[in-house]
Amino acid sequence: MNAWQKMYQEKLTTADKAVKVVKDGDNVEYSHFVTLPYDLDKALAKRKKELKHVHVRCNTLMFVPEVFQVDPKGEVFDMTDISFSAVTRGMAKNGIVNYNPLVYHELPLWYDNRIRGVDVLFLAVTPMDENGFFNMSTTCSSTMDIIRCKGGTAKNLKVILEVNRSLPFIHGENNIHISQVDTIVESTANPPLHAIPPVSGDETDMKIAKIIMNEMEDGACLQLGIGGMPNLVGKMIAQSDLKDLGCHTEMFVDAYMDMFEAGRLTNNAKTLDKGKSTFTFAMGSERLYQFMNNNPSMNARSVTYTNDPHVIAQNDKVFSICSCIAVDIQGNISSESAGYRQISGTGGQLDFHYASFHSNGGKGFLCTHSTKKLKDGTVISNIVPYFKVGTAITVPSNLVNYVVTENGIVNLKGLSLWERAEALIGLAHPDFREDLIKQAEIAGVWRRSNKR
């Protein structure tokens, strides 16, 4: 038994004992996305009658945690998600799950500047290697930044690892040494990563994807956002004759695997991290996780690196492709809420859209269907004269580059308000254009010389 194995045995305990460090009022952070600390969550839930005002924070929660199931009214545990998922949206109906607005690449600065600290970190990891290192698998995010504050701005931080033998090993800046850890728990079930089948998209997504494909170039460095349409673009690229594409993205998804296997994604034309796909987290199918396992072309990095616009823009031809919810006639983009109803989060959309314009030859695409059908069958326009009260603006009009619907594409850079209104109304569904023109006239951004 070497020194690291000895230290491992000294720090090894049960989940029930490990969570005893949580005190009243503590901020407890769960590992992000699909690397989930199931046993620690269950153990913390058992302490409901012992604790008061424990704040649990997560990022794009993919399961309904036990602390919520035992405390659905939030009498002891209140929860915050920094980017809502389908799971969190359902939980938010109870009124105890909150959204934490942020620009993702700035999250680690919260820890450095004590804006919002972490008292206890629950982190799912792979088994320890012979040198005493654990791997955070598909999720790097801001976790290493939290741990780096241990002993500094977060002197009392407790790091508790949940070792899961089912997690794939992912290369990059996502290894934690046992000397940085307080307590180790071994998972009882070793559940596999939460798998998310690729969203295929619909006919409208296909039309939008084809428009974007007409803009694509050899050597482009791609950022694909979440959803069916960006995934379709990736599949089309895999079937195209494009060459030497690169990956510098927030989220690594199945589409990148398809492009890699088709020989389109080489990362050889990138300025940074040549030969490697750079990302901060991954979510996708079980096959994707198998593809990533011990794959030396993977490069998981902290979000302070992947999402920093000044880093991203050092690559040439950064093409950022993201979906949005709605666009107003000035060009403001909403991608995270409908009124006060939280749907998602800012994530890296603002970071990458801004960076793409500052990249040599780069382009940023914000895409939406021209219409949406509500539950009652009513069809509404996603090109709107103004947003509902409470709607978050994800990308302000003065930073927007390309907007795309199934009806076309416009570059808003350099356009006046009159020109923007005309261009965006041209992307709307024909049934809504006359009303949008009337609203633009009322707003004073439509001229007699504009087209009808």
Uncertain parts:
none
The average pLDDT value, as a whole number, equals: 94
SSE class: alpha/beta
Question: Biggest sheet: strands side by side, in what order?
Answer: 1-10-8-6-2-3-4-5
Produce a short descriptive summary:
This protein is an alpha/beta fold. Helices cover 27% and strands 21% of the residues.
Description of the molecule:
The structure is a single chain. Helix 9 (228-238) runs parallel beside helix 10. The mean pLDDT is 94. The chain is globular. It has 452 residues and is an alpha/beta fold. The chain starts with a helix and ends in a 9-residue tail after the last helix. Strands 1-10-8-6-2-3-4-5 form an eight-stranded parallel sheet. The chain has a six-stranded mixed sheet with strand order 12-11-17-22-26-27, sandwiched between helices. The protein has a three-stranded mixed sheet with strand order 19-18-25, with helices on one face. It is built from 16 helices and 27 strands.
